[in-house]
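Thread: "does anyone have the structure for this chain?"

Original post by V.I.:
We have the sequence but no experimental structure in hand. Need at least a predicted one for the grant figures.
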Amino acid sequence: MRRIEFDLDSAKATAVLLEDLAPKACETIWNKLPLSGMAIHAKWAAREFMLHLGGKNRIILEPEGPTKESVADTLDSVPFGVGSVYYFYRQAGVLRGVQRDYSPEFQRELCEFAIFYGHSAPSMQDPGRQPDPTKSVDIWFATLEEPIPKNFIAKADALNYEGLKPLVVRRM
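Reply from O.Q.:
Generated one for you, C-alpha cells below.
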C-alpha cells in the first residue's frame, strides 16, 4: 500500500493511494511525484482546496474507477467526502467564469488535484449548464489518513482568507 504526503505550508497529512480502484491513475501520479505549486481554496465547495497541475506538472488521465457522481449514489457503502483526494480534468470551454487566482492556462482548461479536508457543501453546479461528461475526467485516487492533523486543517482553512500557499505532494 503506497502513501503520499501533502505538505501544505509546512503542515503535513498522509494519504493512501487507492490502487485497487484506480491503478493506472495511481501509477501515473506516483511516477510524476514530487509535484509542487500554490494551493488554492475552493471557496464554493466548503472544505476543499486544489493544486493546479500545469506546465511540467500537467497530467492527463483517462477515466477510471468511481467518480464523484457515482460515489455520491452509494454513500452508505463507499466513504466519500472528508479525506477524499481527486484528480480533475476539464477541457477548455467546460467551466465558465474567471477566478482571479487562476492563471490564464487554467481559465481555458483545468487540470488539478482536489483535496477534501472537511465536509463539503452542496454542489454549486449551474443547473442551466451541465458539463459535457465527455470533456471531463474525475478520478478518486487517494484518501487522507485519519485523523487529519489539526495543523493541516488550520492551514487549509487559512487558504480561504489568506490566499495561495505552497503545496508539495511527494512519495512516502
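V.I.: this helps a lot. Residues 3-119+135-171 form a domain with the Cyclophilin fold (CATH 2.40.100.20).
O.Q.: and Residues 74-79, 124-129 have pLDDT under 50 and may be disordered.
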